[in-house]
Amino acid sequence: MSAFAAAMEALAADPNIGADALYRAGGTGAPVPLRVVRSAPDRLGDAFGTSVIQASDVLTVAIAVLPAVDADDTFTLGADTLTVQHAERDAAGIAWRVFCRR
What we know:
By secondary structure, this protein is mainly beta. 11% of the residues lie in helices and 53% in strands. It has a single domain, classed as Thrombin, subunit H, CATH 2.40.10. Strand 7 (80-89) and strand 8 (95-101) form a beta hairpin. It is globular and about 50 Å long. Pfam families: Phage_attach (PF05354).
């Protein structure tokens, strides 16, 4: 295990940073329990020439735990169900950065 993979595992396991989630392939598959790191950065968008702040949800998930992520897969964190819009690997190939909609 590389130092980056160990750091990702430690962040996800930390109760102050990581969160329990249930992953479902295609939104209907069998639930897979895992740990994720959730962030909710605001994004600046444009609507009819007016700047609009949009909330977003980004999950970081270890690739070792979840080898594939596709659009329309879902993650359930507590009462929130997040649907995957896009997922990309980080530069080191250790984690997915998963962009979701609520």
